[in-house]
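Field: COMPLEX_INPUT
Field: COMPONENT_COUNT = two
Field: RESIDUE_TOTAL = 608
Field: MODE = joint
Values follow.
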Amino acid sequence: MSYEILEHTADEKFQASGDSLEEAFSEAVKAFSEIVGGFNGQTYYSIEVESESQEALLFDFMDKLIFLQDVDNVVISYAEDLEIEDLEDGYRLTAKIWADNIENSMSVMDVKGPTYSEMEVTFEEGKWRLQVVLDI
Amino acid sequence: MELNKISENIYEIPQEGQMKKPARVYANEDLLKEIRQDDTLKQIKNVATLPGLEKYSIVMPDGHQGYGFPIGGVAAVNKENGVISPGGIGYDINCGIRVLKTDLKYEDIRGQEQQLANILYNKIPCGLGKGGYINTDEEDLEEILEKGAEWMLENGHAKESDIKRCEEEGRLPGNPEKIPEDAKKRGLNQVGSLGSGNHFLEIQRVGEIYNDQKAEAYGLEEDQVVVMIHSGSRGLGHQTCTNYLRKFEKNYPEIVEEIPDKELIYAPMQDELAQDYKEAMYAAANYAWANRQAITQGVRECLSTIYEEVETELLYDVCHNIAKEETHNVDGEDKELLVHRKGATRAMPAGRPEVPEVYRDVGQPVLIPGSMGTASYILSGGQESLEISFGSTAHGAGRLMSRTQAKQDYWGEDVQKELKRDQIFVKAASGSTIAEEAPGVYKDIDEVIKVSDALGIGNKVAKMRPVVNIKG
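Field: COMPLEX_OUTPUT
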């Protein structure tokens, strides 16, 4: 289980990995949190995302995190109990997303959106690996 | 990659494979070297595969890698058989620049820079979760999406001349019903907020004047204080782009199969979904104009608390992430086109109907920011722009270095101190924000402008120097 923030000329790119897809997605939340400048996580949201493919799920999941931040004025911290269920025509992700309220003194990066640019969801040598570029 | 030199500052990638037309790069040798360092050329080649593309896909001298389209990309497609691509507009629909003129001189604000930085930083919401300068309810939001800057005027947040001097008079035929509900939720509380990333608000002083006649027409003189605002449609625009990308992806699996990069996804112009997106994109553009206008009001309030009698007037407001329906002459024939400009500025020469009446005889003001420690420029739309760039030019310095690298190479506090030695006062939410946007992470704006001027697509009028800069 790990994540890494990578080089990108204008935006933010990261990789996250894990023994299971769930672990990799949970690591992706940590990477997201590092990019935006997250804290410990004082409050949580139960979220559910359904998408037609693993890539689309990753895209929609990032979109959900960005949406939460913008609408509820919180900064994302980490994911707990993240489950991914195979559906007949796609995947369903459920998780508790921990976050902190944004105070006036805080500096939080405003993410514009997820992108499909250089996106990867791969399973190699027993490891799931995700790659995402966020538009900043 | 094969790149033929067509003439000074113009290079071409010949048409091959799936490309519908050639791809062009407008740059000098030094800028081209930088452009070659990332995937910009590959991306502009991909853009040349868009159906209905006219003449060539173009990347401007400040171009760099984006997602799908490069930043600095221009693609004009035929409205009849062409396509609309959200990735060719960007997530930040109608991200743009406006310049507010004041009747202050540099000597009037000397010694008060820190005070100005503090007051602006406290008054204008920047970064995430700080709200907007004006309060809007759901009903207001619907009207803003429909009327843009006009709503601001009707509700006492603008002067008549602000509207007259704004691209499209701050209103495009948008349809609020086409904006996704999630986007409206994000936009509710953000009218009059800068955002973060490369968005900023900067007090500048006019330095060199290159063209006296045009500077006079624009109302600019040496040492005058002006304010530059860089922001867009905030969460509302971003969510609109995200949702339509997904809609296009689900609706056109056969196009996804064909395209070289999923972020290039498009819809044929004649399809209902394409029209829906266009109307949503225009509504989001209206929101962006209301946003920049609200920030303008914030700036006016800040200035008048320090300088009681100060007069301010909008010089102009340009979009640099948008697609516009325009008529252009292609091979001797007038054609109705949709011109995608992603990180490119409209630069219409004198006489074009798009240029506001007050400037029609001199050409459209083109507002190009540098990075926070370097100059910004005001150009005027050049005569050659219609022939070679569909009435467009560059939009800024263009990034050169990643944020990660910038934070390794620069220490925010050091950058801040260094700039202060040059009488440039920067205030940001954190040191890392300053490091990420340090002058050294951008290309040389002077070189970018030189190419625009030499090509005759945007001609130099005035150069501005930063005095106070605030960032989210």
